[in-house]
Amino acid sequence: MSLEPLRISAGRKFAAGLAGILTTTSMAAGWGVTAFIFLPTSPSDPLSSKLLFLALALIASAAFVVVSHLLVRAALGRFRTGGSLSRFFRYQLAALGAGGGLGLGFLPAMIGAAPTWWVISIGAGVGLIAVSLLAFRGDPRRPLTAPTHLGIGLTEGVVVDYWSGAMPRATAPGLTVVRFADEFGRARFARHLIRRNPTTFGTMGQVQYDRCRPEKVLRFVNGRPPFAEYPPHPRLGEHF
Questions:
Q1: Contact assessment for residue 53 and residue 102, using Cβ atoms and an 8 Å cutoff
Q2: Per-residue pLDDT tens for 159-177?
């Protein structure tokens, strides 16, 4: 967490937007992997040709994941909440899974399968897409409980900057800056990926941070639960 106010600059917006685009288009890579795994090989075609295209599809999938992950790291910077990168990685896997589900759905038409296999393949594809899309649901509002470990602090946070790109309801998460005060009353800032839309300036939440490592913010949950008890600290407005 930073002692200085953080901004979502144009470069960070570009990196986050490009990461979202690559994550969405990675569905094509998931489709290609599924197609080359299940497509049968003709006796006249060598098995090496199928393995070659399957390897290319896997390499493309890995490239989408790695490049998008690096772009999100660049968008978040050093001062970010813990879990933001793992959340985005789940989005990437979900996009690949959705592409794989589409591949399963179109597979019977590609190979001219019997009607029974149409039902099985389409059912499996719809199930895979449904499971994959669960990763894109909004952030839960489950309140954070007071940690038992003395090295972990719990306090209020507020969103002071927010950007979600040209399409607020796209699959890419929104990039936010969260402001809170530590146990000494000092204002701290951290960047966070959030999926609950719309998020506006002044949205309250809970911040869980590591007292021993001031630069590390563990979690941020959007929304303050009623009757929550927090460690006493000066109000955030007193520091600005």
A1: no
A2: 888 887 654 445 556 788 8
Q: How far does CA 238 lie from the centroid of its chain? A: 33
- The DSSP result for 51-84, as a single string, is HHHHHHHHHHHHHHHHHHHHHHHHHH-SSBBTTH
Q: Is 180 in a helix, a strand, or coil? A: strand
Average of per-residue pLDDT values in the chain = 76
Q: In this structure, which amino acid lies at residue 53?
A: F
Dihedral sign from CA coordinates of 83, 188, 240, 224: positive
* Farthest CA pair distance, the chain: 77
C-alpha to C-alpha distance for 111 and 150, rounded to whole angstroms: 61
Give CA–CA dist 238/233, Å, rounded. Answer: 11
